[in-house]
Design goal:
With about 325 residues, the protein is an alpha/beta fold. Helices cover about 55% and strands about 10% of the residues. The chain folds into 2 domains: about 120 residues, no CATH class; about 210 residues, Alpha-Beta Barrel (TIM Barrel), CATH 3.20.20. The chain has an 8-stranded parallel barrel with strand order 1-2-3-4-5-6-7-8, surrounded by 8 helices. Helix 1 packs antiparallel against helix 4, helix 4 packs antiparallel against helix 6 and helix 7 crosses helix 15. The longest helix has 25 residues.
């Protein structure tokens, strides 16, 4: 066998073994990954002795603190090796793979990638708990959005969304990166509103879309595998549609009437809708609309994982103190 091709085969086998160690559920997917290795016509692909297999699994588990990201990187590398083998001609063992093994391998890798990426995003979305603030230059009292974001994070908010419909995208990206750095310093999530291209360029943890923005699936095609997508919903029916589309979190509101950022036309759904969505959905629920110190406790008790506010923090005389009070109320609920 050509030495280059032999190296690719070796890489394929070793990378499949790593996937077997890291993707153990669902059982059907694990079985397909194992079969992908076992069906290779090479001695190195044979099942290892039990003791060696146990040693390998232990060793694999010690090489990273981010097994899901390593698994995604391995899938990407494995896909590249499979694509190389698909171009090899003149080797009978490799040629045999072209008709059956390579197409099946590509399907298994796609399913594996979707599974691991969904698990990774679910872990990120699980951080959606506490106070979530939207910073927008049109709702800061003429103060700098980075200044407001800094104060909110010092006050204990766990998520910052940046919304800007006034600046050129180049400037928006620069500001988004500043806010991302701040969020990383405070172990908080940074979400970009609406613009998938800005979310990608800035390296945001996620993107938030409205009902008339990009569908979740279309946004997902542009974003990195680990970037989450949240979607706004004005009731249970829309929330269930967003769940069906694969949204990583569901923003529900306006819970109470609000005029912030031109949302006066949005019908108030009340805490009872939060409760209904909580009963029907597994994703984190972010309540939004007309929320502040006087009413967040009842909304948390209705089942919201996170409370999204704008003016209650961004228009406050002391945004840090306002954020701290809301965080205290959330924690007490």
């Amino acid at each position: 066998m050509n030495p280059f091709v032999a190296n690719q085969v070796h890489a394929v086998i070793e990378e499949i073994r790593l996937l077997e160690a890291f993707i153990t559920a669902p059982l059907g997917l694990y079985s397909d990954i194992k079969m992908m290795r076992e069906s290779l016509p090479f001695p190195d692909a044979a099942e290892l002795p039990r003791e060696e297999l146990r040693e390998r699994r232990t060793a694999f588990g010690q090489i990273t603190d981010s097994p899901q990201q390593l698994t995604l990187d391995t899938i990407s590398s494995l896909r590249a090796s499979v694509d190389i083998l698909a171009q090899v001609k003149g080797d009978p063992d490799i040629t045999k793979l072209h008709e059956g093994w390579i197409p099946r391998a590509r399907m298994v890798l796609s399913r594996s990638e979707n599974q691991v990426a969904a698990e990774l995003r679910a872990g990120i979305a699980s951080k959606l708990r506490g106070i979530y603030v939207i910073v927008d230059p049109e709702a800061t009292g003429d103060r700098d959005v980075v200044e407001i974001a800094t104060a909110a994070l010092k006050g204990g908010v766990t998520v910052v969304q940046f919304r800007d419909k006034t600046r050129d995208k180049g400037e928006v990206i620069t500001i988004a990166r500043e806010i991302l750095d701040l969020c990383n310093q405070h172990d908080a999530l940074f979400i970009m509103n609406d613009d998938a291209d800005v979310a990608i360029a800035a390296g945001a943890h996620g993107l938030h879309v409205g009902q008339t923005d990009l569908p979740v699936g279309e946004a997902r095609k542009s974003l990195a595998l680990h970037q989450i997508v949240g979607r706004s919903n004005n009731g249970l029916e829309q929330a269930m549609d967003s769940q069906q589309q694969g949204a990583d979190y569901l923003a529900v509101g306006a819970v109470y009437a609000t005029t912030t950022m031109g949302k006066s036309g949005r019908s108030a759904v009340g805490p009872e809708t939060i409760r209904k969505v909580r009963d029907a959905a597994d994703q984190p629920i972010v309540a939004i609309g007309g929320l502040g110190e006087s009413n967040i406790v009842e909304v948390v008790q209705a089942g919201a994982d996170s409370i999204c506010v704008v003016s209650a923090i961004t228009m406050a005389d002391d945004p840090e103190a306002a954020a701290a009070r809301l965080v205290g109320l959330f924690n007490s609920a």
